[in-house]
């Protein structure tokens, strides 16, 4: 079993829909990252969380440390949100461990 | 700022050949790392560096060497390429190991025949 599990693996939505991507992890962590990988391959950091919730534009990330679970929400989705969304966790003082990613396609 | 740059973008090698993937950053970041990305797997750490002159192995270091002679540059050397090293390679940097933002290069797509 991977240390970081993402669901779903693939997600197709219609423009305007509310989207949720989930990340579960099995180890104690000091931080959790959400990243976005564009269709061209480039990877961009979206959030780092150690507790609670963060919001940036239409993106919201939450984490429940006790449940070892994080969610990434996209409100009013748009075709330009189509990308792979990657969850990564860092146990204290160690390297990042990445999930396999969730492929999101938003259709107009 | 150019951010994190990687060269080349694409490379085809024959089994047994050696080559160096270049990575540079102009943000004065201490922490730099190399990852490989394979279908059906998350990014996996090959080697990392917490500062000039300091490198360490990651999860999948076999077949790769690194050095960090300057803060800016962190080249990855493939000593004798194997088909199992066919992958997309990403270099990343951040202010520190625990920094909240990781900056990734555009990637190098390597095929070993």
Backbone CA Rg of chain A:
13 Å
What is the count of β-strands of chain B?
Answer: 11
Would you tell me the structural class of the helices and strands of chain A?
mainly beta
Q: List SSEs of chain B in N-to-C order.
A: EEEEEEEEEEE
Mean pLDDT of chain A: 93
* Backbone shape of chain B: globular
The largest inter-chain interface, given as chain pair and residues per side, is:
A-B, 23 and 22 residues
Tell me the Rg of chain B in angstroms.
13 Å
Question: How can the largest sheet of chain A be summarized?
Answer: 6 strands, mixed
Number of helix segments of chain B?
0
- Helix share bin of chain B: under 10%
Q: Could you give the topology of this structure?
A:
The complex is a heterodimer of chains A (108) and B (113).
Chain A: E1 4-7, E2 10-14, E3 19-25, E4 31-37, E5 43-49, E6 52-56, E7 59-64, E8 69-74, E9 83-90, E10 96-98, E11 102-107
Chain B: E1 4-7, E2 10-13, E3 19-25, E4 31-37, E5 44-51, E6 54-57, E7 64-66, E8 76-78, E9 87-94, E10 103-104, E11 108-112
Parallel strand pairs in B: 2-11
Antiparallel strand pairs in B: 1-3, 3-8, 4-5, 4-9, 5-6, 7-8, 9-10, 9-11
């Amino acid at each position: 079993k991977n240390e970081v599990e993402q669901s779903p693996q693939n997600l197709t939505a219609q423009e305007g829909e509310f989207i949720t991507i989930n990340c579960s992890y099995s180890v104690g962590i000091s931080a959790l990252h959400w990243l976005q990988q564009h269709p061209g391959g480039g990877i961009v950091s979206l959030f780092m969380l150690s507790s609670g919730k963060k919001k940036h534009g239409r993106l919201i990330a939450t984490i429940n440390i006790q449940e070892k679970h994080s969610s990434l929400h996209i409100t009013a989705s748009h075709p330009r949100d189509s990308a792979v969304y990657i969850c990564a966790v860092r146990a204290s003082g160690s390297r990042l461990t990445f999930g396999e990613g969730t492929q999101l396609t938003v259709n107009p | 700022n150019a951010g994190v740059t990687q060269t080349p973008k694409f490379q085809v090698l024959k089994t047994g050949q050696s080559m160096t993937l270049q990575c540079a950053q102009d943000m004065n970041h201490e922490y730099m790392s190399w990852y490989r990305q394979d279908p059906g797997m998350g990014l996996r750490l090959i080697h990392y560096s917490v500062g000039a002159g300091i490198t360490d192995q990651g999860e999948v270091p076999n077949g790769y060497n690194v050095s960090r002679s300057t803060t800016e540059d962190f080249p990855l050397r493939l000593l004798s390429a194997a088909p199992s090293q066919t992958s997309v390679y990403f270099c990343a940097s951040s202010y520190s190991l625990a920094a909240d933002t990781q900056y990734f290069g555009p990637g190098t797509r390597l095929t070993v025949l």
